[in-house]
Design brief:
By secondary structure, this protein is an alpha+beta fold. It has ten helices and twelve strands. The strands form three sheets. A five-stranded antiparallel β-sheet has the order 2-1-5-4-3, with helices on both faces. A five-stranded mixed β-sheet has the order 7-9-10-12-11. Strand 9 and strand 10 form a beta hairpin.
Length: 461
C-alpha cells in the first residue's frame, strides 16, 4: 500500500472512530434523557391521579376517568391503576385492565417505594402512596411516541452525518496526503536521475522549513560526501598509479640498459644498486598503500587493548632512532600525571605506534637539525600528544588538504616521501574516536596534536 493511501486510511479510521464515539455518546445521552423525562411525567400523572381520587371528595372514580380521558396532556396508551393494601384494584383509568401485574410487582413497589420498569413497549412506574391513612400502590404506564420518534430521527441524523463525515474525511485525507507527499514524489523523481557518473546534481531544498526540505538538505549533504569520496578515490588511484609508475619505469629502464649494452662489472654493480633502490621504493610505497587500505576497514574489526601513552612514545622513538641514529627526539610532560591511569587509553598498539612513528619521523625529516620535541599531556576527556619541529613548515593555504592521500606541501619537493603518512595517521586517530590537529608556519616549523579519549571515556562511547 502506498504511503498516501496508508496515511489517508489511518486518518479516516481515527476520524471515523471519533465520530462514531461522539455519535454514540449523543444518542445514549438523548435516550437516557428521554426515558428519565418520560418516567417523570408518568410519576406526576400517577401522583395527580391518586390525589384527585383520595383527597378531593367531589371527584369520584367515574368523574376521574372522564378527566383522564379528556386531559390535553394525555399520553398514548396511558393507563393508571391503583391497588389497595390487599392487592385489590381500587381504580383503573381504562375500562379493561391491560397492564400485566402480579403480587410480586406490587410487593416490590411496597418494598422499594418507587420503581421504573417496562410493560411490553410501554414504560411503567410504580409508586407507594401512604398519605391520608391510605396504603396504595399506583401503577402508571404509557408509550412515549413523540419522544421515541425524536430519538429515532436523531439516530438517522447521526448515521447520515457519520456516513457523510467519513466519506468527506476519506476524500480530504487522500487529497491532503497526496498534497503533503508531493514533495517526496518530486524528490524521488530527482533521485532517479542521479547516477554514479553524475553526482553533481542536487535536490531542491525548498525553504528549508519542514521535514521534507530538511530531508533534501541531508540528502544533498550525503551527495556532497559521496562526491568527495569519489573524488578522493579517483585522486588516490591517479596518484597511486603515478607513484607506482615512477619506480617501475626506472626498473624497466635499468633492465633495458643492461640488456642492450655490455657493461663492466662496476657498471653492473651500480645498476644492481639502482635496481635495489627502486625496488625498496616500490616495496615501501606498496606497503604504505596496503596499510592505508587496512585502516579504511571497519573499526569493529580492530582489536583493542589498554595502553599507556608514554609507552607508545618511547617504543616509537626507540624504533625510529634505531633506523636513524642521527635523529634527536626529546620527550617531556606538559604537567606530571596526578595518577598512574591519567595517560591510559584503549586502542590498537600497532596502529597507534605507527601514528607516533610517522609524526616523529616527519618532524625529524623536515627539520634542519633533525630534532623533534614531544610533549605528553592530558585533560578531562583526552590524552594529548604534541609533536613539534623547527622545519620547513606548511603554507597556510595547504593545511586543509595536507591529510589527503598523496598530498604533500609544495615546499617538500626535495624530501623523500609519498604523501600517505599523514592521511594514515588521521584515519587511525578517527578509528580511536580521536583527532589529529595541525598548526604550521612556513620556515618556522609545524606542531601536530594527537587527541585520544581517556580509558574511561572511550569505554562509554
Amino acid at each position: 500500500m502506498r504511503i498516501r493511501n496508508r496515511i489517508a486510511l489511518q486518518f479516516s479510521v481515527i476520524v471515523a472512530s471519533i465520530l462514531m464515539l461522539f455519535s454514540l455518546i449523543i444518542y445514549l445521552n438523548s435516550a437516557s434523557y428521554r426515558q428519565e423525562e418520560f418516567y417523570e411525567r408518568l410519576k406526576n400523572k400517577a401522583r395527580t391521579t391518586v390525589r384527585l381520587l383520595i383527597e378531593v371528595k367531589e371527584v369520584d372514580k367515574n368523574l376521574l376517568k372522564i378527566i383522564d380521558r379528556n386531559t390535553i396532556t394525555a399520553l398514548l396508551d396511558e393507563k393508571v391503576l391503583i391497588f389497595n393494601e390487599h392487592n385489590q384494584l381500587v381504580y383503573s383509568s381504562v375500562d379493561d385492565q391491560v397492564i400485566r401485574y402480579n403480587p410480586t410487582l406490587l410487593a416490590q413497589v411496597r418494598e422499594e417505594k418507587e420503581i421504573e420498569t417496562y410493560s411490553g413497549d410501554n414504560e411503567l412506574i410504580g409508586l407507594y402512596y401512604t398519605e391520608s391513612g391510605q396504603k396504595l400502590v399506583i401503577l402508571a404506564s404509557a408509550y412515549d411516541k413523540f419522544g421515541r420518534s425524536k430519538l429515532r430521527n436523531l439516530g438517522y441524523t447521526l448515521l447520515w452525518g457519520l456516513w457523510g463525515g467519513i466519506s468527506v474525511t476519506i476524500l480530504l485525507g487522500v487529497y491532503f496526503a497526496g498534497q503533503s507527499l508531493a514533495p517526496i514524489d518530486r524528490i524521488n523523481r530527482q533521485v532517479q536521475t542521479i547516477t554514479a557518473h553524475d553526482l553533481g546534481q542536487r535536490l531542491d531544498e525548498g525553504a528549508r522549513r519542514d521535514e521534507i526540505d530538511q530531508l533534501a538538505v541531508n540528502f544533498n549533504a550525503v551527495l556532497d560526501r559521496l562526491n568527495r569520496a569519489f573524488e578522493q578515490q579517483r585522486s588516490f588511484v591517479t596518484h597511486a598509479s603515478h607513484e607506482l609508475r615512477t619506480p617501475l619505469a626506472a626498473l624497466k629502464s635499468e633492465i633495458q640498459l643492461g640488456m642492450q649494452q655490455r657493461l663492466s662489472p662496476e657498471q653492473y654493480g651500480q645498476m644492481l644498486e639502482n635496481l635495489m633502490e627502486d625496488t625498496e621504493r616500490l616495496i615501501g610505497l606498496t606497503n604504505s598503500l596496503l596499510f592505508l587500505a587496512r585502516t579504511l576497514e571497519s573499526s569493529n574489526q580492530m582489536p583493542l587493548t589498554t595502553l599507556r601513552l608514554e609507552d607508545l612514545v618511547f617504543e616509537a622513538r626507540d624504533e625510529l632512532l634505531a633506523a636513524n641514529p642521527g635523529y634527536t627526539i626529546g620527550v617531556d610532560y606538559e604537567t606530571l600525571p596526578a595518577t598512574e591511569t591519567e595517560t591510559m587509553l584503549k586502542g590498537n598498539p600497532n596502529l597507534l605506534r605507527r601514528v607516533v612513528f610517522n609524526l616523529l619521523d616527519n618532524a625529524c625529516k623536515y627539520s634542519a637539525d633533525q630534532t623533534a620535541l614531544v610533549r605528553i599531556g592530558t585533560d578531562t576527556s583526552s590524552c594529548r600528544l604534541i609533536v613539534e619541529d623547527r622545519g620547513i613548515g606548511i603554507p597556510p593555504e595547504e593545511l586543509e588538504r595536507i591529510f589527503e592521500p598523496f598530498r604533500r606541501g609544495s615546499n617538500a619537493v626535495g624530501y623523500h616521501g609519498f604523501g600517505i603518512g599523514l592521511s594514515i595517521c588521521r584515519r587511525i586517530a578517527e578509528l580511536h574516536q580521536g583527532s589529529l590537529l595541525i598548526s604550521s608556519m612556513p620556515g618556522r616549523g609545524s606542531t601536530f596534536t594527537l587527541l585520544i579519549p581517556h580509558l574511561g571515556v572511550a569505554q562509554t562511547r
